[in-house]
Write a structure and sequence with these properties.
The complex is a heterodimer of chains A (about 100) and B (about 350). With about 100 residues, chain A is α+β, with helices and mostly antiparallel strands. Chain A has helices spanning about 1-10, 20-35, 50-60, 80-85, 90-104, and strands at about 15, 40, 65-70, 75. In chain A, about 50% of the residues lie in helices and about 15% in strands. In chain B, helix 6 (about 140-170) runs antiparallel to helix 7 (about 175-200). The chains are: A alpha+beta (about 100), B mainly alpha (about 350).
């Protein structure tokens, strides 16, 4: 879906979220703890919420939220983020964006 | 009072109807009365009357001679009151005995349930009133299944622990040892699968930890053990470690802690949201079912959280096993198994030996 692709490419780290979703909030807290500030896009405040959900599912996101994009690519939902972090692979992915976020 | 004739039914214990015998019967049932005011009232009446009749104790004939001169209806009234009071006393006794019988039946039922639960490997308290039987196991088939399966899981766990102990003390090769490690890991993963199914049946039950022993519950975090605690428990038993391993385990510990913290914060938010949903618009019951429905939806999020926490546990175990050698992993699994076994034994000992109040 174009909207998603556009958002993902414009923001180093993007989390597609819902305002009521507490797992999304958990993932957000994790990124904050790691020193980055992803863009949180709350799809339940978007009129095209249902389309976005379907698109995320088609892209392979099990949530469908949270859906985490790093460097324009879909990383996955909570499971994938946690697995990456425990294996030590998440930090290298976000390092390029740590400095940038601070500049903002 | 009603006509004396309908109530003038001599009890088995009385031969001839005499006021003195009535009073004897009263004394027997004094302790069983369930409506003290009435007893006192009637006994007060009787006490008043006993003073009258005691004069006539010299001989029945004298008493009746004396009473023949009093108004007859007063006597009849007294006798009727006696009978009424005695009848009520008998009814109360009957009700009390029935209550005792019911309690006895219930007690037998509970003991049977407890016995059944123990045989299924559940760890329940030694005394019935130290009740860890607060689960809905008997009414929810999904949970009943889970409890049964968990009981078997614990038995299998104990078997694996002793097999692992023997394997490590023998001169078994790494290839064979790896098999033990892998089946040990798979056993934990099986539990997570069981829990996922149970969470869909009753997530509150799973999160309450009622299916685990008391000491395990003490350390509970979102439906199970804390992954970061795991590492801390295992670390001393994994030595000697290489520098790289030490570094990797340290990093794993940090990532694990961060992931846990994130989930904990998510849970807090969920608590808040559910509380707000339930507390919204309390006054004004036209929204009642809507409110309940809204809260219900939020509870689905709990199922996801338990799943996420279990996923973290599984990932932690897998990462640990990747960092360690086969032999170290085997020692780690053994240490972990014995740690949980100790918690279970502690709980069992604790509940069957209640501490005396000082």
């Amino acid at each position: 879906m174009e909207k998603i692709v556009k958002l993902a490419s414009e923001n180093g780290i993007l989390i597609m979220s819902k305002s009521s979703c507490c797992l999304c909030y958990a993932v957000q807290m994790l990124f904050q703890d790691l020193g980055v500030h992803p863009l949180i896009y709350e799809i339940d405040h978007d009129p095209e919420e249902k389309e976005i959900e379907k698109a995320l599912v088609r892209m392979g996101c099990s949530g469908p939220v949270p859906a985490v994009f790093i460097g324009g690519k879909l990383v996955g939902s909570t499971n994938e983020v946690m697995s990456l972090h425990l294996s030590g692979s998440l930090i290298p992915l976000i390092t390029p964006y740590q400095a940038l976020s601070n500049v903002k | 009072m009603n006509s004396a004739s309908t109530q003038f039914v001599p009890s088995r214990r009385m031969g001839i109807h005499e006021p003195i015998h009535q009073m004897a019967m009263w004394g027997d049932f004094k302790g069983l009365d369930t409506s003290p005011p009435m007893i006192l009232e009637v006994e007060a009446k009787l006490d008043n009357q006993s003073e009258d009749t005691s004069h006539g104790i010299d001989g029945p004939s004298n008493k009746y001679d004396q009473e023949a001169s009093k108004p007859a209806d007063k006597v009849l009234r007294r006798l009727a009151q006696n009978r009424e009071a005695a009848r009520k006393s008998r009814l109360r006794k009957k009700a009390y005995v029935q209550q005792l019988e019911n309690s006895k039946v219930r007690l037998i039922q509970l003991e049977q349930e407890l016995d059944r639960a123990r045989r299924q490997g559940l760890h329940v308290g030694g005394a019935l009133d130290n009740s860890q039987l607060g689960y809905s196991g008997t009414t929810n088939p999904g949970i009943a299944t889970f409890e049964m399966e968990y009981g078997r899981w614990v038995e299998e766990q104990n078997r694996q622990i002793s097999d692992l102990k023997n394997a490590l003390h023998s001169d078994i090769g790494d290839v064979e040892l790896r098999l033990f490690v892998e089946s040990g890991m798979r056993h934990y993963f099986d539990l997570f699968t069981m829990k996922a199914t149970a969470a869909r049946s009753d997530v509150f039950y799973l999160m309450s930890g009622m299916w685990k022993t008391a000491a395990e519950r003490f350390f509970f975090w979102i439906g199970g053990f804390r992954p970061s605690e795991l590492l801390k428990v295992l670390l001393p038993h994994l030595e000697p470690l290489s520098e790289q391993q030490r570094l990797d385990l340290c990093n794993l510990g940090q990532s694990c802690q961060q992931a846990e913290d994130a989930l904990s914060q998510g849970m807090e938010k969920l608590h808040q949201i559910i509380a707000e949903t339930i507390a919204a618009r309390l006054l004004g019951d036209e929204n009642y079912y809507q409110q309940i429905g809204a809260a219900y939806e939020k509870l689905d999020a709990l199922v996801r959280f338990v799943g996420q926490a279990d996923h973290l546990r599984q990932e932690t175990l897998q990462q640990i096993s990747r960092i360690l050698t086969t032999r170290q992993a085997a020692r780690g699994l053994l240490a972990l198994g014995m740690y949980f076994q100790r918690l279970r034994d502690l709980s069992s000992h604790w509940s069957s030996h209640p501490r005396e109040s000082t």
